[in-house]
Amino acid sequence: MSLVSWKYPSMDWIKLNVDGCSKDNLRCAGAGGLIRDSLGSLIKGFPINTGIYSLVIAELWAVVKELELA
User: What is the pTM of this model?
Assistant: First the structure.
């Protein structure tokens, strides 16, 4: 078992984290993301219902939305 943790970005940088999910292939899907500063403070975040898509498309929707926010 390995531990996974979030790491702060370097000073004066921001970090964008996204995740997408799908119930099954081509079923209800959603995505979300966060933008945090170098202190770990939340700048913006979002959840979205992407509709009926595969997991890969839900992940891509999350990336597109996150880049729009950034």
Answer: 0.77
Cα torsion at 62, 66, 69, 70 (round to 10°)? -170
Contact between 62 and 20 (Cβ < 8 Å) = yes
> What are the residue ranges spanned by the domains of the chain?
15-69
Architecture of domain 15-69 in this structure: 2-Layer Sandwich (3.30)
Give the tens place of pLDDT for each residue, 16-58.
999 998 887 778 899 999 999 999 999 999 999 988 888 888 8
**Position of tokens 């099954």?**
24
